Amino acid sequence: ELVFLRQEDAPRLLAFLKRFFFRDEPLNVAVQLLGPRHDQPCVPLEEYCAEALQEPLSIAAVAPGSGELLGVCLNGSNAPGHADEARARAAACPHPRFRKILRLLAEVEAQADLFARFPGLQRLLEVRVLSVDGACRGLGIGTALLRRTRELAAEHGFPLVRCDCTSAFSARAVDRLGFYPVCTLPYDSYLGDDGRPVFQPEPPHTQVSCYVYKV
Ligand code: ACO
Predict the structure, then answer these.
(1) What proportion of the chain, given as a percentage, has pLDDT over 70?
(2) Which residues pair with 72 in a beta bridge?
(3) CA geometry: angle at 63 spanning 62 and 67, to 5°?
(4) Cα of 171 to ligand 1 centre, how many Å?
(5) What pLDDT, on a 0 to 100 scale, did the predictor assign at position 76?
(6) Ligand 1 atom closest to the CA of 21, numbered from 1
(7) At 72, is the secondary structure helix, strand, or coil?
(8) Which of 137, 146, 162, 177 gets mutated to test ligand 1 (max ligand atoms within 8 A of its CB)?
(9) What percent of the chain has pLDDT over 90?
(10) Is the CB of 141 under 6 A from ligand 1?
(11) ipTM of this predicted complex?
């Protein structure tokens, strides 16, 4: 069952994401976002997730009856100038490990340059966080959330959906739904000042791709 997430869902949403996304998204794993024992907070990521609830565009898959969260897709709108905002937000992030991730995403967004790539585009719907309960993966829940997000974009008049896939599994899901990649950054070519890759996620996660879907 798919439902909308509302602002009052923030506490249970964050509890869910701290169990799963914060620990198991490939880049969060690669930088040990919560520290080696998974016991340190990442307040800027909590804020990033909670902020998505300000717009009525985020959805969840819940267990019938109990209403327990099984998966979430946090979505938000972007307008021209968003890439610059993302870069500024990355630079200002006080959490060094999360800052690395925000910088990579800002770089991908700058390279994708969607508002220049699609002339006349004034707004788009961005998939910011996609996360499914670790015990329920591979059952199509992520795909169902993305499919509903695609419908929401049509209902709200967004001409484009964007999803930056840091995981090979989310890339596979959007690819099957007719999204296509406009820009890809292999992790082994994204180097830090020391000349070494900033992220070395576990296989099969080898790249981040900005996928788009024309509504
Ligand atoms: N091993 C191999 N393939 C897998 C696995 C796995 N462990 N998990 C999912 N897949 C494949 C599926 O087989 C399917 O491909 P197919 O259609 O060719 O069979 C595809 O991934 C999507 O499967 P779904 O069942 O629809 O996706 P799921 O409900 O498992 O959710 C998700 C996918 C959200 C990426 C989940 O794996 C997850 O929560 N991962 C950790 C967080 C994460 O990485 N999120 C995405 C980051 S990008 C972003 O947030 C915008």
Answers:
(1) 100
(2) 60, 131
(3) 70
(4) 8
(5) 98
(6) 42
(7) strand
(8) 137
(9) 100
(10) yes
(11) 0.97
> What letter does residue 11 receive in the DSSP assignment?
H
The protein residue with its alpha carbon nearest to ligand 1, atom 9, reads 138
Residue nearest to atom 41 of ligand 1 (CA): 25
Q: What is the pLDDT of residues 60-118, one digit of tens each?
A: 999 999 999 999 999 999 999 999 999 999 999 999 999 999 999 999 999 999 999 99
* DSSP SS3 for 119: coil
Q: CA-based angle 76:79:81, to the nearest 5? A: 120
- Contact between 124 and 78 under an 8 Å Cβ cutoff? The reply is yes
What pLDDT, in 10s, does the model give residues 7-51?
999 999 999 999 999 999 999 999 999 999 999 999 999 999 999
- Nearest protein Cα to ligand 1, atom 27: 142
Nearest atom (ligand 1) to Cα of 205: 44
Give residue 90's identity as a one-letter amino acid code: A
Residues near 57 by Cβ (< 8 Å), separated by ≥ 6?
75, 76, 77, 125, 149, 152, 156
pLDDT at 153: 98
Please give the Cα distance from 24 to 17 (Å, whole number): 10
Give me the phi and psi of 129, to 5 degrees please: -140, 130
Q: Tell the burial category of 96 from Cβ atoms under 10 Å away from its Cβ (0-12, 13-18, 19+).
A: exposed
Closest atom, ligand 1, to C-alpha of 141: 29
Q: Please list, in sequence order, all residues whose beta carbon lies within 8 angstroms of the beta carbon of residue 119, skipping any fewer than 6 positions away.
A: none
Query: What is the structure's pLDDT at 121?
Result: 98
